[in-house]
Amino acid sequence: MFDTDNINDNINDNINDNINDNINDNINDNINDNINDNINAPCQLCSTLITLTIT
User: Fold this and answer.
1) How far apart are CA 6 and CA 19, in angstroms?
2) Which superkingdom, per the lineage (predicted)?
3) pLDDT higher for 23 or 1?
4) Where are the domains of the chain?
5) How high is the mean pLDDT of the chain?
6) Measuring CA to CA, how many Å separate 34 from each of 2, 39, 46?
7) Does 35 or 50 have the greater pLDDT score?
8) 21 to each of 3, 14, 16, 42, 43, how far by Cα in Å?
9) What pLDDT is recorded for position 35?
């Protein structure tokens, strides 16, 4: 008789691994986006103020 339990367990493990990988990737992407936004926002503000001051 063919053991399908082990195959199903492996499939479920792979599905769960992929889901967790995708979740972690999305979390890391969001963290990096937020870090970049926080770094870039003050720079954009300063350059805007400098431009307004010059003009």
Assistant:
1) 20
2) Eukaryota
3) 23
4) 4-54
5) 90
6) 50, 9, 19
7) 35
8) 28, 10, 8, 32, 33
9) 93
CA distances from 1 to 9, 10, 18, 36 (A): 17, 18, 30, 56
Q: What is the dihedral angle through the alpha carbons of 7, 9, 11, 17, rounded to the nearest 10 degrees?
A: -150
- Read off the pLDDT band of 48 (50, 70, 90): confident
49, two tokens:
């103020």
Give the pLDDT of residue 54: 85
Please give the DSSP secondary-structure letter assigned to residue 23.
H
Between CA 13 and CA 26 the distance in angstroms is: 20
